[in-house]
């Protein structure tokens, strides 16, 4: 019974039973009320009105109108109302039960013997006598015994009540079932979104206590997966931090040893020593980037929020990048449509945007410019900064992975100037710390565009 399948099955099954049961129960009660109505004044009053109307129509000699009126009465009344002539034929051609025929013969006999006085000497009868202008007698008679469940259900004013009741109750049951099923799925969706944003500490199962179905099993499996991922990612980050810290000390000693060796060696070893120095500097730069990435991922960097003039920040970055680009016959062009003030860590944000711009300068072709464009999104209260180059572009399959550590395209991986694949990863995490996001896309004419969505206030 704890299975979700049985919960859904039983819920729908009980709803159908409730619908059928309520329909039969209400119809049966209606039948009982109708059959006992001949002892009340309700049916007497209606039959009196029907007989007056039938007498009026038959006095006008309009038989077609009488049939039409009788049909409308039959559609409205759950009790069949028969209009029988003195020959025992019903006006609408319906079969007259034998019991009514026997009674009608007795009624006619009483009328002939008493000349109609018998009808008025006793209490009012439900049956009504209708006399046409030519003297023909008709009996307007309710046929209680012919009431059936099918006849009752065909009357809209009768079936409307159980249908409405069953619809309301069924709707409430289905709403409760839908809520019961979708509420934990919504929590799972929120948990996956938080996991996708980097929060691996969120758990779902504690909020589903008391459930012992497939959704609870799914939540436990999700929490186990999240726990394992948190452990693996945490150990990875810890390894990155520990390795980076541990490498700093031997690297510093290597640099001291290199300096001492230069003092003691002759000029014939300068080429080899210069090579060692360059590799040592590259290793030092790599370790620095690893430490920065580890601190950003673990939240170990303490940020200082202040108001930043976006125009001043971008102009400073453009000026520095242009100086480096001119040496390689390249340029950096800033198109500032709008300026403004944002809140954040100026040093961290400056480093992130400069890293992206310098990366674009590295790959743009000679004789081209890196284009920086700034727009303001009033609806989301954020600035859109696009940084586009005119380089060879990136394979479409690589675009979603550009901001992962140590990811480089094949051409850059084979070049010494290709970097270590950490710059964009560091920039992406710094921008994310400011509540923004960065995406990459290929330009139709060649090159890559990095688009930064940076909110005014993180």
Task: Supply database-style keywords.
458 residues; alpha+beta; Beta-Lactamase; Helix Hairpins; Heat Shock Protein 90; 5-stranded mixed beta sheet; 3-stranded antiparallel beta sheet; 10 strands; 13% strand
Task: Give the gist of this structure.
The chain has 458 residues and is an alpha+beta fold. Helices cover 57% and strands 13% of the residues.
Can you walk through the features of this model?
The protein is of the alpha+beta class. It folds into 3 domains: 36-154, Beta-Lactamase, CATH 3.30.450; 242-298, Helix Hairpins, CATH 1.10.287.130; 306-455, Histidine kinase-like ATPase, C-terminal domain (Heat Shock Protein 90, 2-Layer Sandwich), CATH 3.30.565.10. Helices cover 57% and strands 13% of the residues. It has helices spanning 4-35, 41-59, 63-76, 98-114, 118-121, 149-153, 156-196, 214-264, 270-298, 310-326, 346-363, 410-413, 423-433; strands at 81-85, 128-131, 137-142, 306-309, 331-336, 341-344, 369-377, 382-388, 437-442, 448-455. The strands form 3 sheets. A 5-stranded mixed β-sheet has the order 5-7-8-10-9, with helices on one face. It has a 3-stranded antiparallel β-sheet with strand order 1-3-2, with helices on one face. It has a two-stranded antiparallel ribbon with strand order 4-6. A hairpin with a 5-residue loop joins β2 (128-131) and β3. The longest helix is centred in the middle third of the chain and has 51 residues, at 214-264. The protein is elongated, with a radius of gyration of 46 Å. Mean pLDDT is 77; it is low at 116-124 and 412-417.
């Amino acid at each position: 019974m704890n299975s979700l399948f049985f919960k859904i099955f039983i819920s729908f099954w009980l709803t159908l039973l409730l619908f059928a049961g309520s329909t039969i129960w209400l119809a049966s009660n209606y039948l009982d009320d109708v059959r006992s109505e001949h002892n009340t004044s309700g049916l007497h009053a209606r039959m009196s009105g029907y007989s007056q109307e039938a007498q009026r129509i038959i006095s006008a000699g309009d038989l077609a109108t009488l049939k039409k009126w009788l049909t409308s009465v039959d559609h409205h009344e759950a009790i069949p109302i028969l209009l029988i002539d003195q020959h025992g034929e019903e006006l609408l051609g319906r079969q007259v039960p034998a019991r009514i025929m026997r009674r009608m013969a007795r009624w006619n006999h009483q009328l002939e013997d008493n000349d109609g006085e018998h009808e008025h000497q006793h209490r009012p009868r439900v049956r009504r006598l209708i006399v046409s202008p030519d003297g023909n007698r008709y009996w307007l008679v309710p046929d209680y015994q012919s009431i059936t469940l099918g006849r009752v259900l065909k009357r809209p004013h009768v079936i409307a009540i159980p249908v409405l009741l069953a619809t309301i109750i069924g709707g409430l049951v289905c709403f409760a079932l839908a809520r019961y099923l979708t509420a934990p799925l919504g929590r799972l969706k929120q948990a996956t979104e938080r996991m996708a944003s980097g929060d691996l500490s969120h758990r779902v199962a504690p909020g589903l206590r008391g459930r012992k179905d497939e959704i609870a099993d799914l939540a436990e499996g999700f929490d186990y997966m999240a726990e394992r991922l948190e452990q693996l990612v945490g150990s990875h980050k810890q390894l990155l931090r520990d390795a980076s810290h541990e490498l700093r000390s031997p690297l510093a000693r290597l640099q001291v040893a290199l300096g001492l060796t230069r003092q003691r060696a002759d000029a014939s070893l300068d080429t080899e020593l210069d090579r060692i120095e360059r590799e040592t500097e590259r290793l030092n730069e790599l370790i620095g980037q690893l430490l920065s990435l580890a601190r950003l991922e673990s939240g170990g960097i303490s940020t200082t929020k202040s108001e930043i003039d976006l125009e001043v920040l971008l102009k400073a970055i453009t000026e520095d990048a242009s100086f480096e680009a001119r040496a390689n016959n390249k340029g950096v062009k800033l198109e500032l449509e709008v300026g403004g003030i944002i809140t954040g860590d100026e040093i961290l944000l400056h480093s992130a945007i400069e890293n992206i711009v310098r990366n674009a300068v590295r790959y743009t072709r000679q004789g081209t410019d890196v284009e920086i464009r700034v727009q303001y999104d009033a609806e989301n209260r954020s600035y859109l900064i696009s940084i586009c180059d005119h380089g060879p572009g990136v394979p479409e399959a690589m675009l979603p992975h550009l901001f992962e550590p140590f990811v480089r395209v094949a051409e850059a991986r084979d070049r010494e100037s290709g970097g270590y694949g950490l710059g964009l990863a560091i920039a992406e995490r710094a921008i994310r710390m400011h509540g923004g996001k960065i995406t990459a896309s290929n330009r139709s004419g060649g090159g890559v565009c990095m688009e930064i969505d940076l909110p005014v206030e993180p």
